[in-house]
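Before drawing any conclusions, I looked closely at one protein's amino acid sequence and its backbone structure tokens, quoted below without any editing.
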Amino acid sequence: MHFGRQELDAPTKLVGFVVGIAFLFLAALFVGDKIGPDAGATAATPHTDHGAHDEGAAAVVMPAGLQASQGGYTFSLDRPVVESGAAVPIAFTIRGPGGAALTDYDVMHTKELHLVAVRRDLTDFQHVHPTRNASGTWSTTLDLTRPGPYRLFADFTPAGGENITLGAELSVPGDYRPQPPSPQPPSPPNVTSSTDGYSVTLAGAVTAGTSSTVASTIEQNGRKVTDLEPYLGAYGHLVALRADDLAYLHVHPEEGPPGPTVDFTVDAPTAGMYALYLDFQHEGVVHTAEFTIEVQEGQA
């Protein structure tokens, strides 16, 4: 009888086991049906947020001149370290997406390429226009009588493309004494500049994140200059550099009379101190006035 009871209980346990497995399977399907979409949504949420982050990141425009390479183009100096001197030879190439030297440019402000050099302490500003040979190598000379680290900016537009400004470091060994002491930017703001007998003043507030207008007024020996001569296709050319990292700003001259006031549109990406350099031509000579301004915070 004892053995007979075991034979009777085994099928009963087997049936119970099968029913239990079936119940668990159905329960799993039920729970999966209930939580599946939420789990999927949870898994998709990081992807969605990442996409939103990418869109926001794409909307942020990197200031010009902070990179040696951008969009497949590279600013390549032949010699990143040069000797000090009054007319030091400088040679470089702009390499295109395929690695070859770029030889086809659009003309911008009457030139294929603008080269700006400034010492890291924001002194010794130079704006020159190199010559290019058939192989695509650009050459010029710079006044590097004051040793120290320099930042070079190549401002150009590939034929049929967008304007690009690339930056490269140039070192001039010697006794480097920053003016003012690095890394502090020049302070306080200076909106009046005297150069070669000319007095130049800047007017107008610049706000970060918006297009702002600054007006430069030029006087010579106390008289307003009303016969400025075109320089690079306009009555003035303004370069702006962010003091903290030497980010290069594209500044556009506005059409107007040949003085005494020349207006410019400035797009500053952030608040802070900026150095401005105004080139203007009068009586056949190009002069440079230097300023320091403080850009205010914009509205969020």
Remarks:
- The CA atoms of residues 176 and 223 lie 39 Å apart.
